[in-house]
Amino acid sequence: MSMVTSRKTSPPREDAEAPGLRERNKQEKLERIREAARELFAKKGFAETTTREIAQRAGVATGTLFLYARTKEELLMLVLSERVEAVQEERFRTLPREAPLLEQLLHVFEGFFTFYAKEPGLARTFIRELLFVEPGPAGERMRLERAFAARLAELVVAARERGEVAPEVDLEVAGLNLFSLYVTTLIAWLSGALGPGESWRPMLERTLALQLRGFGPGADTLPRKKRRQS
Fold it and tell me: Which end of the chain, C or N, has fewer beta carbons within 10 A?
Protein backbone atom coordinates (compact mmCIF):
# COMPACT_ATOMS: atom_id res chain seq x y z
CA MET A 1 0.00 0.00 0.00
CA SER A 2 1.53 3.21 -1.11
CA MET A 3 1.67 6.08 1.25
CA VAL A 4 0.93 9.52 -0.07
CA THR A 5 2.60 12.26 1.89
CA SER A 6 0.48 15.34 2.02
CA ARG A 7 2.20 18.67 1.79
CA LYS A 8 0.82 21.62 3.61
CA THR A 9 0.69 24.80 1.63
CA SER A 10 2.57 27.57 3.40
CA PRO A 11 0.27 30.45 4.32
CA PRO A 12 1.02 33.89 2.94
CA ARG A 13 3.75 35.61 4.92
CA GLU A 14 1.50 38.40 6.08
CA ASP A 15 3.17 38.62 9.48
CA ALA A 16 6.58 39.07 7.88
CA GLU A 17 5.36 41.61 5.38
CA ALA A 18 3.13 43.60 7.73
CA PRO A 19 5.92 45.42 9.58
CA GLY A 20 7.38 46.67 6.30
CA LEU A 21 3.97 47.79 5.09
CA ARG A 22 3.24 49.51 8.37
CA GLU A 23 6.57 51.30 8.21
CA ARG A 24 5.86 52.52 4.67
CA ASN A 25 2.42 53.78 5.71
CA LYS A 26 3.93 55.50 8.70
CA GLN A 27 6.57 57.18 6.55
CA GLU A 28 3.96 58.29 4.01
CA LYS A 29 1.85 59.88 6.74
CA LEU A 30 4.92 61.57 8.16
CA GLU A 31 5.73 63.09 4.78
CA ARG A 32 2.13 64.29 4.32
CA ILE A 33 2.14 65.86 7.79
CA ARG A 34 5.52 67.49 7.23
CA GLU A 35 4.47 68.96 3.87
CA ALA A 36 1.09 70.14 5.17
CA ALA A 37 2.72 71.87 8.11
CA ARG A 38 5.34 73.50 5.91
CA GLU A 39 2.73 74.86 3.49
CA LEU A 40 0.46 76.20 6.21
CA PHE A 41 3.27 77.73 8.26
CA ALA A 42 4.54 79.50 5.15
CA LYS A 43 1.06 80.66 4.07
CA LYS A 44 -0.61 81.58 7.37
CA GLY A 45 2.30 81.91 9.74
CA PHE A 46 3.24 79.74 12.67
CA ALA A 47 1.02 81.47 15.23
CA GLU A 48 -2.14 81.42 13.06
CA THR A 49 -1.87 77.80 11.98
CA THR A 50 -3.67 75.18 14.08
CA THR A 51 -2.83 71.51 14.46
CA ARG A 52 -6.36 70.67 13.30
CA GLU A 53 -5.73 72.48 10.01
CA ILE A 54 -2.47 70.61 9.53
CA ALA A 55 -4.16 67.28 10.20
CA GLN A 56 -6.97 68.05 7.75
CA ARG A 57 -4.55 69.13 5.03
CA ALA A 58 -2.45 66.00 5.57
CA GLY A 59 -5.54 63.76 5.48
CA VAL A 60 -5.02 62.26 8.94
CA ALA A 61 -6.92 62.38 12.21
CA THR A 62 -5.78 64.90 14.80
CA GLY A 63 -4.99 62.03 17.15
CA THR A 64 -2.75 60.49 14.49
CA LEU A 65 -0.96 63.81 14.06
CA PHE A 66 -0.07 63.83 17.76
CA LEU A 67 1.62 60.45 17.37
CA TYR A 68 4.23 62.21 15.23
CA ALA A 69 4.42 65.54 17.05
CA ARG A 70 2.94 66.41 20.43
CA THR A 71 2.98 70.17 19.94
CA LYS A 72 3.02 72.72 17.15
CA GLU A 73 6.63 73.49 18.09
CA GLU A 74 7.55 69.86 17.50
CA LEU A 75 5.81 70.07 14.13
CA LEU A 76 8.01 73.02 13.22
CA MET A 77 11.08 71.01 14.16
CA LEU A 78 9.68 68.16 12.07
CA VAL A 79 9.30 70.46 9.09
CA LEU A 80 12.71 72.08 9.07
CA SER A 81 15.15 69.88 10.98
CA GLU A 82 15.44 67.39 8.11
CA ARG A 83 16.00 70.20 5.58
CA VAL A 84 18.56 71.89 7.84
CA GLU A 85 20.47 68.62 8.14
CA ALA A 86 20.38 68.23 4.36
CA VAL A 87 21.95 71.69 3.96
CA GLN A 88 24.61 70.74 6.48
CA GLU A 89 25.46 67.54 4.61
CA GLU A 90 25.71 69.37 1.28
CA ARG A 91 27.96 72.07 2.69
CA PHE A 92 30.39 69.69 4.32
CA ARG A 93 30.39 67.43 1.27
CA THR A 94 31.40 70.34 -0.99
CA LEU A 95 33.89 71.81 1.49
CA PRO A 96 37.10 73.22 -0.06
CA ARG A 97 39.45 70.89 1.85
CA GLU A 98 42.66 72.80 1.22
CA ALA A 99 41.22 76.24 1.94
CA PRO A 100 42.01 78.15 5.17
CA LEU A 101 39.68 77.58 8.12
CA LEU A 102 37.97 80.97 7.74
CA GLU A 103 37.08 80.24 4.11
CA GLN A 104 35.78 76.78 5.05
CA LEU A 105 33.57 78.20 7.80
CA LEU A 106 32.09 80.82 5.48
CA HIS A 107 31.39 78.09 2.93
CA VAL A 108 29.48 76.05 5.50
CA PHE A 109 27.49 78.98 6.91
CA GLU A 110 26.66 80.39 3.48
CA GLY A 111 24.51 77.35 2.76
CA PHE A 112 22.29 78.09 5.74
CA PHE A 113 21.88 81.80 4.96
CA THR A 114 20.93 80.89 1.39
CA PHE A 115 18.43 78.34 2.67
CA TYR A 116 16.81 80.69 5.20
CA ALA A 117 16.64 83.51 2.64
CA LYS A 118 14.09 81.49 0.63
CA GLU A 119 11.50 81.61 3.45
CA PRO A 120 12.63 84.28 5.92
CA GLY A 121 9.34 84.38 7.83
CA LEU A 122 9.40 80.66 8.51
CA ALA A 123 13.12 80.89 9.23
CA ARG A 124 12.54 83.53 11.92
CA THR A 125 9.96 81.31 13.56
CA PHE A 126 12.20 78.27 13.37
CA ILE A 127 15.19 80.05 14.90
CA ARG A 128 13.04 81.58 17.63
CA GLU A 129 11.53 78.22 18.51
CA LEU A 130 14.91 76.55 18.24
CA LEU A 131 16.36 78.95 20.81
CA PHE A 132 13.38 79.13 23.15
CA VAL A 133 11.76 75.76 22.62
CA GLU A 134 9.65 74.20 25.37
CA PRO A 135 11.15 71.28 27.34
CA GLY A 136 9.27 68.66 25.28
CA PRO A 137 11.02 69.14 21.91
CA ALA A 138 14.31 70.25 23.49
CA GLY A 139 15.96 66.90 22.78
CA GLU A 140 15.82 67.39 19.01
CA ARG A 141 17.09 70.95 19.34
CA MET A 142 20.03 69.87 21.48
CA ARG A 143 20.83 67.06 19.05
CA LEU A 144 20.93 69.46 16.09
CA GLU A 145 23.05 72.04 17.89
CA ARG A 146 25.56 69.57 19.31
CA ALA A 147 25.93 67.70 16.03
CA PHE A 148 26.61 70.93 14.13
CA ALA A 149 29.05 72.26 16.75
CA ALA A 150 30.88 68.92 16.69
CA ARG A 151 31.33 69.11 12.92
CA LEU A 152 32.65 72.65 13.23
CA ALA A 153 35.11 71.35 15.82
CA GLU A 154 36.26 68.77 13.25
CA LEU A 155 37.19 71.64 10.94
CA VAL A 156 39.27 73.11 13.76
CA VAL A 157 41.01 69.75 14.20
CA ALA A 158 41.96 69.68 10.52
CA ALA A 159 43.12 73.30 10.72
CA ARG A 160 45.26 72.42 13.72
CA GLU A 161 46.93 69.68 11.70
CA ARG A 162 47.69 72.29 9.02
CA GLY A 163 49.28 74.54 11.64
CA GLU A 164 46.51 77.17 11.65
CA VAL A 165 45.33 76.45 15.18
CA ALA A 166 47.31 76.15 18.40
CA PRO A 167 47.58 72.60 19.85
CA GLU A 168 46.15 73.61 23.25
CA VAL A 169 42.85 75.01 21.91
CA ASP A 170 39.82 73.38 23.55
CA LEU A 171 38.09 71.82 20.54
CA GLU A 172 34.67 71.47 22.15
CA VAL A 173 34.63 75.11 23.18
CA ALA A 174 35.95 76.12 19.75
CA GLY A 175 33.03 74.39 18.03
CA LEU A 176 30.51 76.01 20.38
CA ASN A 177 32.09 79.45 19.92
CA LEU A 178 31.93 79.21 16.14
CA PHE A 179 28.33 78.01 16.29
CA SER A 180 27.43 80.88 18.61
CA LEU A 181 28.94 83.49 16.27
CA TYR A 182 26.95 82.01 13.37
CA VAL A 183 23.67 82.03 15.32
CA THR A 184 24.21 85.57 16.59
CA THR A 185 24.84 86.84 13.06
CA LEU A 186 21.87 84.86 11.73
CA ILE A 187 19.53 86.40 14.30
CA ALA A 188 20.75 89.92 13.50
CA TRP A 189 20.32 89.27 9.76
CA LEU A 190 16.83 87.76 10.08
CA SER A 191 15.75 90.67 12.29
CA GLY A 192 16.83 93.15 9.61
CA ALA A 193 19.57 94.68 11.74
CA LEU A 194 22.22 93.92 9.11
CA GLY A 195 20.20 94.82 6.04
CA PRO A 196 19.01 92.62 3.13
CA GLY A 197 20.82 90.22 0.82
CA GLU A 198 24.28 89.05 1.78
CA SER A 199 24.77 91.74 4.42
CA TRP A 200 25.46 88.90 6.85
CA ARG A 201 28.74 88.03 5.15
CA PRO A 202 31.03 90.95 6.14
CA MET A 203 29.82 90.85 9.74
CA LEU A 204 30.24 87.09 10.06
CA GLU A 205 33.64 87.19 8.36
CA ARG A 206 34.85 89.87 10.78
CA THR A 207 33.60 88.05 13.88
CA LEU A 208 35.05 84.72 12.74
CA ALA A 209 38.39 86.33 11.85
CA LEU A 210 38.57 87.91 15.31
CA GLN A 211 37.81 84.56 16.93
CA LEU A 212 40.37 82.72 14.84
CA ARG A 213 43.12 85.16 15.68
CA GLY A 214 42.73 83.93 19.23
CA PHE A 215 43.16 80.35 17.98
CA GLY A 216 46.40 81.02 16.14
CA PRO A 217 49.78 79.47 16.96
CA GLY A 218 51.44 81.25 19.88
CA ALA A 219 48.19 82.86 21.05
CA ASP A 220 47.73 83.24 24.79
CA THR A 221 44.72 80.96 25.40
CA LEU A 222 45.00 80.71 29.21
CA PRO A 223 42.43 82.61 31.28
CA ARG A 224 43.79 85.70 33.07
CA LYS A 225 43.44 84.15 36.56
CA LYS A 226 45.45 81.07 35.58
CA ARG A 227 48.17 83.22 34.02
CA ARG A 228 48.65 85.09 37.30
CA GLN A 229 48.86 81.83 39.25
CA SER A 230 51.48 80.27 36.98
Answer: N
